[in-house]
Amino acid sequence: MKAVVFQPENRFGTFNSLVKVYERKLHYHIRRYVRDPEDARDVTQDTLLKIWQGLPQFRGDSQLFSWMYRIATHEALNFLRRQKHHLLVPADGEMMETRGAFADVDTTWNGEDVSLWLGQAIDTLPEKQRMVFRLRYFSELPYEEIANRTGTSVGALKANYHLAVQKVEKFILSRRNDF
């Protein structure tokens, strides 16, 4: 994938290049938050509009894609806040792999149930923990990359992720008592 460099004197050309190179990646990122494909397309368009409007103010303090990724994340979260509905399972429909903290879960549980519970558990997290959990657990991004994209310190991210894992684990393991 070819990197796009912001050229203030050629904002329109830069924007067209950004759309060609990053639109699909931004849309995929937004789909991890916004389940409905039409809503995700709308949020992607809103994100691209915000990027277009913000290009003149882009200072280059971070990489261009990190800045765009932050805008996409904020747009998706704002959309969810406005709609008051949350993603229960990944939009791509793939089964979520249970790993790490969930390794001792009763293997007789139905995978679809565990995926549903994982989504429900994530939805109970505070917004910041939910975002960090998704980026670390599903996207498997290193803390440094998440810090760069969110503008948060690595230490704060680690604390948020640790608390989120504990809450998600507790939620899923509490389902053991339901059977």
Automatic annotation (TrEMBL):
GO BP: DNA-templated transcription initiation
Domain (RNA polymerase sigma-70 region) ranges: 18-84
RNA polymerase sigma factor 70 region 4 type domain boundaries: 116-167
Domain of life: Bacteria
The protein, known as: RNA polymerase sigma-70 factor, ECF subfamily
PANTHER family xrefs: RNA POLYMERASE ECF-TYPE SIGMA FACTO (PTHR43133), RNA POLYMERASE SIGMA FACTOR (PTHR43133:SF51)
InterPro entries attached to this UniProt entry: RNA_pol_sigma-70-like, RNA_pol_sigma-70_dom, RNA_pol_sigma70_r2, RNA_pol_sigma70_r4_t2, RNA_pol_sigma_r2, RNA_pol_sigma_r3/r4-like, WH-like_DNA-bd_sf
The entry's keywords: Sigma factor, Transcription, Transcription regulation
Classification via Gene3D superfamilies: 1.10.1740.10, Winged helix-like DNA-binding domain superfamily/Winged helix DNA-binding domain
Entries under SUPFAM superfamilies matching the protein: Sigma2 domain of RNA polymerase sigma factors, Sigma3 and sigma4 domains of RNA polymerase sigma factors
Single annotated GO MF: DNA binding
Keyword Lipoprotein: no
Pfam families registered for this protein in UniProt: Sigma70_r2 (PF04542), Sigma70_r4_2 (PF08281)
Family membership: Belongs to the sigma-70 factor family. ECF subfamily.
